[in-house]
Structures are given as C-alpha cells and as structure tokens.
Amino acid sequence: MSASPTVRLASGAEMPQLGFGLYKVPAEDAERLAAAALGAGYRSLDTAAMYGNEEGVGRAVHSATHDGALSQRLQRADIFVTTKVWNTDQGYDATLEAFDRSQTALGLDVVDLYLIHWPCPRLGLYVETYRALGRLLSEGRVRAIGVSNFQPEHLLRLTDEIGVAPMVNQIELHPWLQQRELRGLHAELGIATEAWSPLARGQVLQDPVLAEIASAHGVSVAQAVIRWHVQEGNIVIPKASSAQRIAENADVFGFELTDAECERIAGLDRGLRVGSHPDNVN
Ligand SMILES: NC(=O)c1ccc[n+]([C@@H]2O[C@H](COP(=O)([O-])OP(=O)(O)OC[C@H]3O[C@@H](n4cnc5c(N)ncnc54)[C@H](OP(=O)(O)O)[C@@H]3O)[C@@H](O)[C@H]2O)c1
C-alpha cells in the first residue's frame, strides 16, 4: 500500500488516516492480525480496554519494532496506537488507574491516543474523566486525547468546562449514517472525525449503488467505501479477519472517486445505525 496520509491533531501528533480496528478480535488472534496489518502497511491500530486484546496489539508493535521482519525499517514512532477508557472506569482517579492497566497491557511507554469510549451521560463523569486525560497528556504519557461517541451536547459541555475541545471524536460513520451535523460541529471546533464501523460492519457492502461505483474503478465495494472515507477527510479504521481482506482494505490509494460518485454516495445517507446510540449506553 502507498503510505496513508495523516491528519494533524490539535496536540501536533500526526495520525494516519487509515488504521486497523480490533473490536471483536479475540485476544488470541490480536497479535497475528495486528502484525498482518502492520505488514500490509497500516501504521495505526485501534484497540480499547473493553476489547480485551491490548496485550496482543502491544506484542505486535513490539515485534514490528524490535525483532520481527519489519523491525529493520519500523520504529515505535512510526506506529500510532489508540486505546480507550471503558465506561466503568470513568472518573478522575479511576481513569488514571485504568490508563496504568492499559499501558501495562500494551507494554508501551507512550500511548498515541487515549479516548473516552462513551460519554455515558447518566454517569455524569465525562468532564472529570477528560481532566484525567489532560493530566496524562501534560505528563507526556499520551500524545493526544479525545472522545468517542460524543453527541453535540457532550462536546459543547466538555469544551465549555475544560476550555479546549477534544482532539478527536470517534463515531459510527459510514455511507448509511453520514453524521453531517456532528461533523459540521467537529469542523467548527477543530475536532478530527474518526469513523468506526466504516463499512457498517460489512452491511453497506450489499448496497447496489456502491457496487456500481466500485465496479467502475475495478475495486471491491469495501475499497470504494474506505476510499470515500479518505476523500471525506475521515480517519477510518476498518476491521477484517483475514490477511487477504486486511491487505485489500489498505489498497485504496491508487484510485480516486469522482465528484459525481461522491454526490451519489451523499444520497445514500439514511441515518441507519449498526451500533448503539450513545444515549443508550450508560
Ligand atoms: N468507539 C466505539 O464505540 C467503536 C464501536 C465499534 C467499532 N469501533 C472501532 O471501529 C473498528 C471497525 O468497526 P467494526 O469492526 O465494527 O466494523 P467494520 O470495520 O465496519 O466492518 C467489519 C466487518 O466487515 C467485514 N469486512 C471487512 N473488510 C471486508 C472486505 N474487504 N470484504 C468483505 N467483508 C469485509 C468484516 O468481516 P471479517 O471480520 O469476517 O473479515 C467484518 O464483519 C472496530 O474494529 C473498532 O476498532 C469503535
């Protein structure tokens, strides 16, 4: 794959636009699949304490930068690792303790991006939780901080109370759920948009319009959708379970969708979620 473009986060950290997502990757498969992703050219890995696979991700990073086949050309600074604090660990002290556990599991001195996994508005702890992330940033233990699944009211409250917007909001985003209003607010506040379930967990691959567009470029539907995310400026983290699909999903930098094709994809938005609504996760 050609190198992924990067997005400059508010801390100055450069985050690759394409990354590999590890939700529902069993712990015993994480090292192998993360290593396959690094071998295929991905330079960003997305995990979370809740995924239970941070150890495997950390081992893949260690071997890619120390003793594995890639270690001649890869250094730790070439790989961007994201993890997230889980809902039950929200709150200032609990988050600092959760970060210690994630850092130990990953075996990394510095985590590139640490996110609040869900706002959990009924818990009422996300502002305190974000203050803990700010402390980790000021101590140099993370290179960037942000949130996930935050709705406009959560972003505005956080920005108001902390005095600075989160650097990233990782949200469900794909051609059937294009999140225009939220992305408009991100642009206003300088928040990078990161798309989770960028393929709608595989469901958008059945869409006939997307199939037509993919076929015009001689690429798979997954590649056309990932390319659309890249052209939209989204950070995109598809997950796949085979080395073949992992490599296929990274091969998206050799073609470009036309404006007319992007307009057709804009017309596919139907507000359809494949994951939970943030108001329902507490
Ligand atoms: N912050 C959050 O709350 C949150 C929530 C959900 C996800 N995420 C992150 O976002 C990442 C991606 O989301 P996701 O895993 O839910 O879904 P996704 O990436 O939209 O879709 C993954 C599904 O698509 C299939 N697939 C992938 N590439 C394919 C290809 N080239 N051809 C055919 N099928 C293909 C996969 O099948 P196989 O696995 O069988 O190959 C899998 O079933 C996660 O792994 C996680 O890192 C974050």
Structure description:
This protein has 282 residues and is an alpha/beta fold. It has a domain at 13-201 and 232-239: Alpha-Beta Barrel (TIM Barrel), CATH 3.20.20.100. Helix content is 40%, strand content 15%. It has 10 helices and 10 strands. Strands 3-4-5-6-7-8-9-10 form an 8-stranded parallel β-sheet. Strands 1-2 form a two-stranded antiparallel sheet. The radius of gyration is 18 Å and the shape is globular. The N and C termini lie far apart (39 Å). 48% of the residues are buried. The structure holds NADP nicotinamide-adenine-dinucleotide phosphate (NAP). Residues 21-23, 46, 117, 148-149, 170, 196-202, 205, 220, 222, 237-242, 245, 248-249, 275 line the site of NADP nicotinamide-adenine-dinucleotide phosphate (NAP).
In short:
It contains ten helices and ten strands.
For the structure shown, list the relevant keywords.
10 helices; eight-stranded parallel β-sheet; 15% strand; binds NADP nicotinamide-adenine-dinucleotide phosphate; two-stranded antiparallel sheet; 282 residues; TIM Barrel; 10 strands; globular; alpha/beta
Secondary structure blueprint with pairings:
Elements: E1 6-8, E2 14-16, E3 20-21, H1 27-39, E4 44-46, H2 54-65, E5 80-85, H3 92-106, E6 111-116, H4 126-138, E7 142-148, H5 152-162, E8 168-172, H6 180-189, E9 192-196, H7 208-217, H8 221-232, E10 235-236, H9 243-250, H10 259-266
Parallel strand pairs: 3-4, 4-5, 5-6, 6-7, 7-8, 8-9, 9-10
Antiparallel strand pairs: 1-2
Helix pairs in contact: 1-2, 2-3, 3-4, 4-5, 7-8
The structure holds NADP nicotinamide-adenine-dinucleotide phosphate.
NADP nicotinamide-adenine-dinucleotide phosphate is lined by residues 21-23, 46, 117, 148-149, 170, 196-202, 205, 220, 222, 237-242, 245, 248-249, 275.
